[in-house]
Structure formats: C-alpha cells, structure tokens
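re: ur question from earlier - yeah i can do the single chain one, its not a big deal. heres the input i used so u can compare w yours
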Amino acid sequence: MSKMNLPNRLTCLRIILVPFFIFFMALPESMNWTKYVALIIYILASITDALDGHIARSRDMITNFGKIMDPLADKLLVSSGFVMLTALGVIPGFITAIILFRDLTVSSLRMFAVNKKHDVAASWSGKVKTVFQLIGICIAIFLTAYSEENSAMFGFLNVPISKIFEIYSILNFIMTICILIALITTIWSLIDYFKRFKADINVQE
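and the output i got, formated as tokens:
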C-alpha cells in the first residue's frame, strides 16, 4: 500500500476529530468548559478542511481518495455540528434535516458518478455552503459555551434595545445569517449536484 500524502492525512485527521467533538458537546451542561474544548476541536477540524484542499491543489497532490474522502469528512464534520446544536436547541430541527438530506443525496449521486469514472470533486457551490456552515456552527458553539440564554438562532431579537449592539447579540445575528445563507446554498448545491450527475443515473444497470 502506498503512503498517504499530507492532504489525505489531514482529511483522515478531520474524520478522527469528529467523535471527540461529539463527546465533549454531549457532556452535561453543568460542565460548561467542555463546550470550549469542543469549539477548539471543531476549529482545528475546520482548519484541516481549508489546508488539505489548498495543499492538494498547490502541490498537485489531488488523488481519487481525496476527491471522495474529503467531501465525506466535510459531511461528517458539518452533520455532527448541526445535530449536536439541534439537540441543544440552538438550530431548528428542520434546518438540520435539510442539511442531512442534501448530504445523503449528494453522496448517493457521487456513487453513480464514480461508477462512470466521472469527476466527483466538490463544486464551488458546495464549497461556499461548507464555509458558511462551518462559520455559523463555530459561532453557535461559542454562544452555547458563553451563555445558554438567547444562544438559539434569532436570539438577538429577544434582546432589549439597550443591549442590541453588545458583542453577544452581534455574534448571534452573524450566526443566524450564516446558518440562513448555509441553508439557501445547501438547497442550491443539491440542485447543482443533481444537474451535474443526473446523467450518470441508470436504473437499468
């Protein structure tokens, strides 16, 4: 077996970090410091997402393994974040359901494309979606660690006018906007991938 290159190692590291993130997020709310640990883990995992793609492209180290596993690692990271934040009441369940539906559908479409030996690298719409998802999730985790009060989406609407420009309210507003943009780009990305790979689907094979 050939040695794994650096971008693929970073991809695998991102997958390994996901269970640790879930573990610290799932610990009792009385142990609030665990949310900060979860945030650090999530940020590190998100950084690997940016690094592996940049290194692979700049050093011409793109592999079929990376084309398949990098999007999978992204899906695991994003899905775990949305699921845990939904469990904490931060993100509405219907948004998480749409995110999971999109990821499962796109993964299935990719399998058809792989069988046809077509390019399954992430599209730019998928990359934009991932960026807003990761930013929104990181801010949301920080808000839950800082204070459970008004940490949910649109929490800034419940803040008194006198406190609307405080950093907590501003971060809640940014998080809400990021998640909404992520939701829109998720639906857009699903349509984009379906158009891209629909020709590869053959129900007779």
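The chain has a mean pLDDT of 84. not sure if urs matches, ping me
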